[in-house]
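[Meeting: bench + compute handoff]

Bench side (C.D.) handed over the final construct sequence. Compute side (W.E.) agreed to return the predicted structure before the next meeting so the bench team could plan truncations. Sequence as handed over:
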Amino acid sequence: MTNTFMKESRILLFASLASLILATNFILYQTPVFGPVPEGAVIGSLLDLLIILPLLTYFMVIRKRYSIKYMGLVVFAGFAIAYFIVPQHHLSAYPFLPYLLMVSEGAFLLFELYIAYTVVTRLPKLVKEYKTLASRNSFFLFNIRKAVETSLPGHRAAKILVTEFSLFHYALFSWKKKVQIEQGTAFTYHQKTTVNAVYIMIIHAIAIESVGLHYFLHSWNPIVSYILLFLNIYGVLFILAELQATRLTPFLLTENHLLLQTGFSKSMHLPLRNIKEIKPYNGPEKFSRKEQALLLDARVPDLIQEKPMFEILLHQPQDVQLLYGMKRTVNRIVLNVDEPDVFYRELKLSLHE
């Protein structure tokens, strides 16, 4: 509990400091509150956005949790914010800025090429391992993640690529695929819900927003409009991937493990020996923030979200795999399945054995 509290406090402090930096710089240049911009203020703003903000991000968010690769994105975001907040006639007094951006992005590109080279040189081994796993079942995300862990152990950047590769696989190339399982018992968890309708509604909303905002923003700033359009297209692909992964990855009970994957954004490879108990869920409909921090809610989105059917308690905290190689630790799981009686009986029997 203490670690969770410290983590939340650190994130809140970072959000407050970052908001203060952005707000003060925006007010300085975009409002008449302080009158004419003082000479040399641009240097202070550049220090805020290109040095102070990235350092805060590293020490309060990235360090010990995520790959340092994200710092390239943070620095690039600082340049983008400076471009939109600081008027061009102020930035033009510092002609070295475009070259500084080119150098930083060049270093970032070299790092990306190094990652690509590492992956390509080990690709034959990775593909062989994936094909071996894929011959046993059609659980793409579990198989590709296991192949990467075997072929590129400890390679955090490769774990990030797994998310992108899985997203495009599910969204674009999985429509004719069917569930294939060689060993174990599968349990669907979405057929008696309205999850498909929810995802289709979200896609419609994104599409309508894209058309309207792209037209409006293009007349103001074409760059912003295209950035937003790209993000909306990515959002549609993400929702399609969630929809397809939900269809293709039922919960799988094997001799030694329970594989839980909800969509493609969260999954768990749970050893049966770590399950302390499974029981019907009798708690409240909604979970507090403290409960959510240590809970895997393996239900899909629903127009009318009903209470979970089952609660699984663990002997030891277990990692949940999230997007881009991120993880979080939970000590219990709640879920729904389409055949609750069969699922409960089979899991109880497996635990007893």
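W.E. noted at the follow-up: Strands lie at 185-187, 251-253, 257-262, 266-271, 275-280, 295-297, 310-321, 327-335. C.D. will use this when planning the next construct.
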